[in-house]
Each structure stands twice: as structure tokens, then as C-alpha cells.
Amino acid sequence: IGLLYSALKWCGKLKAAGQFKYDGVTTSEGKLITYDAWAQKIKDNFEHCFYVPANESEFAKYDVNPKIVNRRGIYKDVYRGKKEYRDYQLRPNFPIAMCVAPELFDPKHALGALEQVDKYLLGPRGVATLDPSDHEYHPNYINSDDSDNYQTAKGRNYHSGPEWEWPRGFCLRAMLKFDLMRRETHEGRVEAFQQVTQRLHGVMQEIKESPWAGLT
Q: What's the rounded Cα separation, in Å, for the pair 81 and 86?
């Protein structure tokens, strides 16, 4: 949804600049929805649909099913998926949306959610693809596993726990973006950059020590 919003805003800007001939999309009923109107609809509803409040007393303000909330103060991974509990899984996807569409996020909520990523998902080099407290968490990726375990056979769990390196950049970019918003002094902004640098040590060590001289 974050990527969709970003694309809609881009198309709207191209249209306004006379570089794109289309105004928007037409529904099956023949109604035109402009790119700007579509983007605004997403923005107006994003927090309500995706945010899971840190305080249980605020659940009623958002589209939340309290019975299946596992981790509070995060953003849902998906919205109204086929298996409802997966909406509430903590994964490193929402920081990507934060980078491409930061205006969708309440800054205070965003920082709190990123703290959860920092605490539970960030590893030495990568980012865990699933919350360790999730019942589907299987962190060891073994592609040659030919067992009868549906969750892990043939590496099926590649996005159910193992660390991936590429999302780390988005996580750190999002942390920096929203941390800088609250910093009012030069010293505070320097500290924000230092926090990101500290979280790059494992990556820099890997580049130096890996026989591939790079990141997998």
C-alpha cells in the first residue's frame, strides 16, 4: 500500500506537469477516480487500518481485533489477508513503506514501531523476516531439508524468520528519517546519525571478512 501510494502521487505529479495523459482510473461503474483522490483516500485511512496501538485502551480507535494481537505498537504486515492473524505479524516490510511514503505515518507511532523492529528483528547484519515470538517463526533456512515438516521443508521458511540483509537499509533509513524529525539541535541530529552508524558495524565487518568481499 505504501508503494501504491508513492506511485499514485508520482502519476499525479506527472499529470499536473503535463507529462502524463491519464487523470486516473475508471471503475467498472464508469466512475473516474483521479490518482490524487486515490492517494488521498489511502492517506486518510492508513493509520486507522494498519496501526496496532501500544496502549490497549486505544484499540477501539483503529481497525484491530484484540483477540489476535501478538505485538503492540507496530504496523500490520498486511490488511485483511486470507489468514487474519498474519495481518498482525511483525515483519520488516513497513519500514520500506516508511521510506517511500513517510507522510502516511504518524511520526510518534512510526518511531515506536521502529523501536520494536530494532529490539526484536535487527540482527548483526540483517533483519529477521518474522518476529521470534510468532508461532510460525523458523529462523534456520536449509534449502536441502527434505523432511515432512511443512513449515521448513525445501527452505519454505525463507521468509519466516531467517535474516535478510537488503531490508536493513530501509530499516535504517526509516529510523534516521523519523528520528531526525524530533531532533531540534545539532547535537541531537549528530546522535541520530550515530545511532545508524552503530547499526552498520556488523555489515561493515562482513564486507571486510567475507570471502566474497561483500554482502550475500
A: 7
